[in-house]
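Predict the 3D structure for this chain.
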Amino acid sequence: MRRFLSLTVVAAVAGLAACSDQTATGVAVPEVSAPLLDLSSGILATTNIAYASRSASQKLDIHLPTTGAKPYPVVMWIHGGGWSSGDKNLGPSNPLLGLLSQGIAIVSINYRLSGEAKWPAQIQDVKAALRWVRANAATYQLDPNRIGAWGLSAGGHLASMLGTTDGVAALTDLSLGNPTMSEKVKAVTDWFGPVAFLSMDSQLALDGCPLFGGTGHNAPTSPESKLLGAPIVTVPSRVQSANPRMYVTAGDAKFLIMHGTADCTVPYQQSQGLAQRLNQVIPGSATLQILTGATHGGGVWMTPTALNQVFSFFKSTL
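Done. Predicted structure below.
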């Protein structure tokens, strides 16, 4: 793993924290036709595959291991960026690709950002990508029964929503394709994702942090307000619909939740609350790791100590 840890790569990863078939619903979904590309690192990848046809944003990349038993377990990578920016691209030296050495494939996805579509379009896209992966698993020698999700910041929020909302009709759009496929995942890693939007400002104040962006998360211009299409203080029911704690039920995914105490963007209490709820409903289902002094992103998250916890978690749960 040491060869992955150049300063250039760490900076690049931190930036992340920033022909057709007819389905049963009659929506055109592109065929799988992209060739496998042999990258310079020896990693096999297929890039820019459309998993739905409603938006140019609905694309994914598949990175396949060159070791391990087939069919491969899969981790879906969900980028961060405040639901308003970010991209699925993982360069050939990205530290996250260390998962491949564990015999685990990575599917990195884009989704509609808040400037294009409001909530719940983002989780609907994530679920559509998951259904596409299951429907096309045999083509890529993936195991449709061993799929997890990993995201940071806004991507951590979406990963947590994916892990807790299987079967919630209001948060899925089957017209995006592959409507008969399951939307269930076995395991989730959430790196410092927001959970309860209306609590963030008060928790950050308790942590001695300044108002986020100078105006706070409750402001009309905050990432959360832009996601929901209105100031969050004016739409509490919509805020609840984006809170993974509200959906936790028996049978949900196992969770590894990691957060830093010096995070002045998303307070670490957000992760504490999610882990508490998960373990209350499903005892032992969530592992919470609080990293003393860690901020919102940064080099500490790309160290072997942090990454190996995630790799081990997925290795044991998928």
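The chain has one domain: 34-317.
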